[in-house]
Amino acid sequence: MQGISTHVLDTSIGKPAQGVIVKLERNTPGSGWITLTEAITDLSGRVSQLLPASDRLILGVYRLRFDVEAYFADYQKETFFPEVTIQFEIREEASHYHVPLLLSPYGYSTYRGS
Fold first, then answer.
1. Architecture of domain 3-110
2. What is the 8-class DSSP label of residue 80?
């Protein structure tokens, strides 16, 4: 299975981050960054498929942009990071890329998941 997915966990409350707006973008030579899709994390903090079914996963540099400020505003919390941007490179078209985000109002971390 090919594609791109994400999972956002709010480590400040120890729960999935429901309702985070996530944009998937690809860097295109000559055009710069183009938005491929926008989604919202579900009850479990997941977006299981960010790449539209009609789009083929191609080699290149992608980024995920998470609207952290809006998420924390829904819980009346301030955040130091209004947006978290994760840039990564697709080197194998036939692979699945899972990019989780561990989030708190004053920090975050990420890794390539499975």
1. Sandwich (2.60)
2. S
